[in-house]
Design a protein that fits this description.
two-stranded antiparallel sheet; 4 helices; Arc Repressor Mutant, subunit A; DNA-binding; about 110 residues; single chain; two-stranded parallel sheet; about 5% strand; mainly alpha; 4 strands
DNA sequence: ATTATGACTTATT
DNA sequence: GAATAAGCCATAA
């Protein structure tokens, strides 16, 4: 299956996210090309690069976990929380308590 | 080409 | 603060 350039950018940027940090769909969208986070979320949900792309490090602008494994809630979300906790990120239930984990893309990372 | 959907965001109620 | 509506961009049918 071919991947569109847009998705390539999304996956690339997602891989750029350092461990122990998270980014938001909006920042990701802004870092690549479009201002639409929705399209970014769509690209991540396809996730052809599965574990190679730390999609669990991508969260909503509200610092909430958002979704995972194609679902907005369920045991998959629990897994996402667990992964983030292992990364050293702290949050309360579905919401981050420390925005310091928010990673912002640098100009060199965006094409 | 047009309609419908979505791991979203913002505004309004 | 929670729920609803409208808006934005990309993909699928």
């Amino acid at each position: 299956m071919e991947v569109s350039a847009f998705r390539q950018k999304v996956f690339n940027a997602t891989q750029e996210i350092p461990q122990g940090k998270v980014t938001t769909y909006k920042l990701l969208a802004a870092a690549i090309d479009c201002d639409s986070s929705q399209a970014v979320g769509q690209a991540l949900k396809h996730n052809p690069f599965a574990p190679s792309v730390p999609c669990h490090r991508v969260v909503r602008t509200d610092l909430s976990l958002g979704g995972f494994a194609g679902k907005t809630e369920g045991p998959e979300i629990k897994k996402k929380k667990n992964l983030l906790l292992k990364e050293g990120i702290r949050f309360c239930d579905n919401r981050f308590v420390d925005p310091s984990h928010l990673f912002t893309f640098d100009p060199d990372d965006a094409v």
